[in-house]
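Weekly structure sync, notes
Attendees: PL (lead), two postdocs, one rotation student
Agenda item 3: pending single-chain targets
PL asked that the sequence for the first pending target be pasted directly into the notes so everyone works from the same version. It is reproduced below exactly as submitted, 223 residues in total.
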Amino acid sequence: MGKGSKNWDPPAIVDDQQQDSSLITTANLILNTSENRIRQFTWEEIRRHSTNKDRWLVINNRVYDVTKWLKHPGGQMVLKHYAGQDASEAFHALHPDISRAEKYLKTFYIGDVNKDSISEDQELKDDFERLRQKAISKKLFKSSVLYFVLTCFHILACEFAAYFVLFRFGTSWLPYLIALVLYIIAEAQCGWVQHDFGHLSVFKKSSWNHLLHQFYVGFTKVC
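Predicted structure, written out during the meeting:
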Protein backbone atom coordinates (compact mmCIF):
# COMPACT_ATOMS: atom_id res chain seq x y z
CA MET A 1 0.00 0.00 0.00
CA GLY A 2 1.24 3.47 -0.83
CA LYS A 3 1.80 6.51 1.27
CA GLY A 4 -1.26 7.89 2.99
CA SER A 5 -3.14 4.62 2.74
CA LYS A 6 -4.04 4.80 6.43
CA ASN A 7 -6.34 7.80 5.77
CA TRP A 8 -8.08 6.18 2.81
CA ASP A 9 -11.78 5.30 3.29
CA PRO A 10 -13.59 2.91 0.98
CA PRO A 11 -16.50 4.43 -1.01
CA ALA A 12 -19.92 4.06 0.55
CA ILE A 13 -21.99 1.29 -0.94
CA VAL A 14 -25.52 2.44 -1.86
CA ASP A 15 -27.99 -0.34 -2.46
CA ASP A 16 -30.79 -0.15 -5.04
CA GLN A 17 -33.44 0.60 -2.43
CA GLN A 18 -31.58 3.64 -1.12
CA GLN A 19 -30.98 4.87 -4.66
CA ASP A 20 -34.65 4.51 -5.60
CA SER A 21 -35.65 6.35 -2.42
CA SER A 22 -33.30 9.18 -3.29
CA LEU A 23 -34.70 9.44 -6.82
CA ILE A 24 -38.28 9.52 -5.53
CA THR A 25 -37.41 12.27 -3.06
CA THR A 26 -35.79 14.32 -5.83
CA ALA A 27 -38.79 13.79 -8.11
CA ASN A 28 -41.19 14.91 -5.39
CA LEU A 29 -39.16 18.06 -4.82
CA ILE A 30 -39.31 18.84 -8.53
CA LEU A 31 -43.07 18.26 -8.65
CA ASN A 32 -43.68 20.38 -5.57
CA THR A 33 -41.59 23.18 -7.02
CA SER A 34 -43.53 22.97 -10.28
CA GLU A 35 -46.86 23.06 -8.45
CA ASN A 36 -45.78 26.07 -6.43
CA ARG A 37 -45.11 27.96 -9.64
CA ILE A 38 -48.73 27.62 -10.80
CA ARG A 39 -50.50 30.92 -10.22
CA GLN A 40 -53.45 30.91 -7.86
CA PHE A 41 -56.42 33.26 -8.31
CA THR A 42 -59.29 34.11 -5.99
CA TRP A 43 -62.86 34.38 -7.26
CA GLU A 44 -62.83 38.05 -6.39
CA GLU A 45 -59.93 38.57 -8.77
CA ILE A 46 -61.45 36.37 -11.48
CA ARG A 47 -64.74 38.30 -11.46
CA ARG A 48 -62.90 41.52 -12.25
CA HIS A 49 -61.89 40.10 -15.64
CA SER A 50 -65.33 40.14 -17.23
CA THR A 51 -65.10 42.77 -19.97
CA ASN A 52 -64.67 42.43 -23.72
CA LYS A 53 -61.07 43.61 -23.45
CA ASP A 54 -60.21 41.47 -20.43
CA ARG A 55 -62.02 38.16 -20.35
CA TRP A 56 -61.27 35.24 -18.02
CA LEU A 57 -63.31 32.15 -17.31
CA VAL A 58 -63.01 29.03 -15.18
CA ILE A 59 -63.36 25.41 -16.28
CA ASN A 60 -62.86 22.63 -13.75
CA ASN A 61 -61.13 25.03 -11.33
CA ARG A 62 -58.60 26.02 -14.01
CA VAL A 63 -58.43 29.66 -15.08
CA TYR A 64 -58.23 30.65 -18.75
CA ASP A 65 -57.61 34.05 -20.30
CA VAL A 66 -59.70 33.93 -23.49
CA THR A 67 -59.49 37.64 -24.28
CA LYS A 68 -57.62 37.05 -27.53
CA TRP A 69 -59.56 33.95 -28.59
CA LEU A 70 -61.26 35.59 -31.57
CA LYS A 71 -61.97 32.38 -33.50
CA HIS A 72 -63.80 30.37 -30.87
CA PRO A 73 -65.80 27.71 -32.80
CA GLY A 74 -68.86 28.34 -30.64
CA GLY A 75 -68.77 32.09 -31.20
CA GLN A 76 -67.99 35.02 -28.94
CA MET A 77 -71.36 35.27 -27.21
CA VAL A 78 -70.81 32.24 -25.00
CA LEU A 79 -67.35 33.50 -23.96
CA LYS A 80 -68.80 36.92 -23.22
CA HIS A 81 -71.63 35.41 -21.19
CA TYR A 82 -69.32 33.36 -18.94
CA ALA A 83 -66.57 35.96 -18.57
CA GLY A 84 -65.50 36.13 -14.94
CA GLN A 85 -67.56 33.05 -14.09
CA ASP A 86 -67.39 29.28 -13.85
CA ALA A 87 -68.12 27.86 -17.33
CA SER A 88 -67.58 24.20 -16.42
CA GLU A 89 -71.21 23.15 -16.86
CA ALA A 90 -71.57 24.81 -20.26
CA PHE A 91 -68.20 23.43 -21.37
CA HIS A 92 -69.22 19.83 -20.66
CA ALA A 93 -72.69 20.31 -22.12
CA LEU A 94 -71.55 21.83 -25.42
CA HIS A 95 -68.44 19.76 -26.16
CA PRO A 96 -69.09 16.08 -26.92
CA ASP A 97 -65.37 15.50 -27.49
CA ILE A 98 -63.81 16.95 -24.33
CA SER A 99 -60.25 15.87 -25.16
CA ARG A 100 -60.32 17.78 -28.44
CA ALA A 101 -61.65 20.95 -26.82
CA GLU A 102 -59.03 20.80 -24.07
CA LYS A 103 -56.25 20.93 -26.68
CA TYR A 104 -57.39 24.44 -27.60
CA LEU A 105 -57.71 25.49 -23.97
CA LYS A 106 -54.07 24.71 -23.14
CA THR A 107 -53.00 27.84 -24.99
CA PHE A 108 -55.10 30.08 -22.74
CA TYR A 109 -54.39 28.44 -19.36
CA ILE A 110 -52.96 30.90 -16.81
CA GLY A 111 -53.45 29.23 -13.43
CA ASP A 112 -55.85 27.61 -10.97
CA VAL A 113 -58.57 28.81 -8.65
CA ASN A 114 -57.25 29.20 -5.14
CA LYS A 115 -58.49 26.28 -3.06
CA ASP A 116 -59.28 28.62 -0.17
CA SER A 117 -61.41 30.83 -2.41
CA ILE A 118 -65.05 29.73 -2.43
CA SER A 119 -67.59 30.81 -5.02
CA GLU A 120 -70.89 32.21 -3.78
CA ASP A 121 -72.84 29.41 -5.45
CA GLN A 122 -70.28 26.68 -4.82
CA GLU A 123 -72.73 24.48 -2.94
CA LEU A 124 -75.16 24.59 -5.86
CA LYS A 125 -72.37 23.80 -8.32
CA ASP A 126 -71.22 20.85 -6.23
CA ASP A 127 -74.77 19.47 -6.15
CA PHE A 128 -75.08 19.86 -9.90
CA GLU A 129 -71.71 18.18 -10.46
CA ARG A 130 -72.75 15.20 -8.33
CA LEU A 131 -75.96 14.95 -10.35
CA ARG A 132 -74.00 15.14 -13.61
CA GLN A 133 -71.58 12.43 -12.51
CA LYS A 134 -74.51 10.22 -11.51
CA ALA A 135 -76.07 10.70 -14.95
CA ILE A 136 -72.73 9.87 -16.59
CA SER A 137 -72.40 6.69 -14.54
CA LYS A 138 -75.84 5.62 -15.78
CA LYS A 139 -74.82 6.48 -19.37
CA LEU A 140 -77.70 8.92 -19.76
CA PHE A 141 -75.56 11.19 -21.94
CA LYS A 142 -74.53 8.39 -24.28
CA SER A 143 -76.70 8.30 -27.37
CA SER A 144 -77.70 5.12 -29.17
CA VAL A 145 -76.56 5.39 -32.77
CA LEU A 146 -78.72 2.40 -33.70
CA TYR A 147 -81.81 4.17 -32.38
CA PHE A 148 -81.15 7.25 -34.51
CA VAL A 149 -80.38 5.16 -37.60
CA LEU A 150 -83.69 3.30 -37.25
CA THR A 151 -85.56 6.55 -36.58
CA CYS A 152 -84.08 8.15 -39.70
CA PHE A 153 -85.13 5.17 -41.82
CA HIS A 154 -88.57 5.32 -40.21
CA ILE A 155 -88.94 8.98 -41.23
CA LEU A 156 -87.89 8.31 -44.81
CA ALA A 157 -90.16 5.26 -45.01
CA CYS A 158 -93.20 7.24 -43.83
CA GLU A 159 -92.52 10.04 -46.29
CA PHE A 160 -92.06 7.60 -49.14
CA ALA A 161 -95.26 5.76 -48.17
CA ALA A 162 -97.21 9.03 -48.09
CA TYR A 163 -96.16 9.95 -51.63
CA PHE A 164 -96.67 6.39 -52.85
CA VAL A 165 -100.28 6.32 -51.58
CA LEU A 166 -101.08 9.52 -53.45
CA PHE A 167 -99.29 8.33 -56.58
CA ARG A 168 -100.92 4.88 -56.56
CA PHE A 169 -104.44 5.61 -55.34
CA GLY A 170 -104.96 9.21 -56.36
CA THR A 171 -106.03 12.24 -54.38
CA SER A 172 -109.50 11.22 -53.25
CA TRP A 173 -110.33 11.86 -49.60
CA LEU A 174 -109.32 8.41 -48.21
CA PRO A 175 -105.86 8.15 -49.85
CA TYR A 176 -105.32 11.81 -49.05
CA LEU A 177 -106.17 11.23 -45.38
CA ILE A 178 -103.87 8.19 -45.15
CA ALA A 179 -101.02 10.07 -46.81
CA LEU A 180 -101.59 13.02 -44.48
CA VAL A 181 -101.30 10.82 -41.37
CA LEU A 182 -98.09 9.23 -42.67
CA TYR A 183 -96.64 12.62 -43.51
CA ILE A 184 -97.52 14.07 -40.10
CA ILE A 185 -95.82 11.14 -38.35
CA ALA A 186 -92.70 11.62 -40.45
CA GLU A 187 -92.54 15.37 -39.90
CA ALA A 188 -93.12 15.07 -36.15
CA GLN A 189 -90.26 12.58 -35.85
CA CYS A 190 -88.15 14.72 -38.14
CA GLY A 191 -88.55 17.70 -35.84
CA TRP A 192 -87.14 15.81 -32.86
CA VAL A 193 -84.33 14.17 -34.82
CA GLN A 194 -83.08 17.40 -36.38
CA HIS A 195 -83.17 18.94 -32.89
CA ASP A 196 -80.84 16.25 -31.54
CA PHE A 197 -78.49 16.52 -34.51
CA GLY A 198 -78.51 20.31 -34.20
CA HIS A 199 -77.35 20.07 -30.57
CA LEU A 200 -74.48 17.76 -31.63
CA SER A 201 -75.73 15.10 -29.25
CA VAL A 202 -75.70 12.03 -31.51
CA PHE A 203 -72.20 11.63 -32.93
CA LYS A 204 -68.86 12.64 -31.45
CA LYS A 205 -67.85 14.23 -34.74
CA SER A 206 -69.63 17.56 -35.14
CA SER A 207 -69.46 17.36 -38.93
CA TRP A 208 -71.70 14.26 -38.98
CA ASN A 209 -74.25 15.95 -36.74
CA HIS A 210 -74.23 19.09 -38.89
CA LEU A 211 -74.63 17.09 -42.10
CA LEU A 212 -77.67 15.14 -40.92
CA HIS A 213 -79.13 18.21 -39.25
CA GLN A 214 -78.99 20.09 -42.54
CA PHE A 215 -80.52 17.14 -44.36
CA TYR A 216 -83.50 16.69 -42.06
CA VAL A 217 -84.23 20.33 -41.37
CA GLY A 218 -83.34 21.61 -44.85
CA PHE A 219 -84.53 18.83 -47.13
CA THR A 220 -87.07 16.63 -45.42
CA LYS A 221 -88.95 19.48 -43.73
CA VAL A 222 -89.58 21.24 -47.03
CA CYS A 223 -90.64 18.18 -49.01
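Discussion points:
- Confidence is low (pLDDT under 50) at residues 1-5, 8-35.
- Strands lie at 40-41, 50-51, 54-59, 62-65, 109-113.
Action: rotation student to compare against the earlier draft before next sync.
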